[in-house]
Amino acid sequence: QVQLVESGGGLVQAGGSLRLSCAASGRTFSLNNMGWYRQAPGKQRELVARISSRGTTNYADSVKGRFTISRDNAKNTVYLQMNSLNSEDTAVYYCNADLIFPRVEYWGQGTQVTVSS
């Protein structure tokens, strides 16, 4: 089992920045990919950014150049630095992690990000 605890969400004005953190505990020795998804009202959950255990990253086109994902393996924590936020970034952001073995994935409880225009 892996537990994921997110922090750092909140209300920010358009053009502002926020940094999300997600700390993993439990079976962390088997952590593989970690990432962030988001879900806006009335929309499907979508991938925002993901980082492998070796540091390989991928981003949704909508956040490229504005968001940066990073990872501290010693702390089992993944971060999402979000800059130049706009109203379309308003959503609940969920941390996600999967294990090398067994091949299962886990979700955090979600943290609300609201961008006011």
Q: How would you characterize the overall build of this protein?
A:
With 117 residues, the protein is mainly β. It is 0% helix and 57% strand. It starts with a strand and ends with a strand. The radius of gyration is 14 Å and the shape is globular. It contains no helices and 11 strands. It has strands at residues 2-7, 10-13, 18-26, 31-39, 46-51, 57-59, 67-72, 77-82, 91-99, 105-107, 111-116. The model has no long low-confidence stretch (mean pLDDT 96). Strands 2, 4, 5, 6, 9, 10 and 11 form a 7-stranded mixed sheet that branches. A 4-stranded antiparallel sheet has the order 1-3-8-7, with no helix packed on it.
Q: Which features would summarize this protein structure in a list?
A:
single chain; 117 residues; mainly beta; 7-stranded mixed β-sheet; 4-stranded antiparallel β-sheet; 11 strands; 0% helix; 57% strand; globular
Count all strands and give the number: 11
Envelope shape: globular
Integer-rounded radius of gyration: 14 Å
How many angstroms does the end-to-end distance come to? 40 Å
Count of separate DSSP helical elements: 0
Low-confidence stretches: none
Proportion in β-strands: over 45%
Helix content: under 10%
What is the secondary structure topology, with strand pairs?
Blueprint (H helix, E strand, L loop, with lengths): L1 E6 L2 E4 L4 E9 L4 E9 L6 E6 L5 E3 L7 E6 L4 E6 L8 E9 L5 E3 L3 E6 L1
Parallel strand pairs: 2-11
Antiparallel strand pairs: 1-3, 3-8, 4-5, 4-9, 5-6, 7-8, 9-10, 9-11
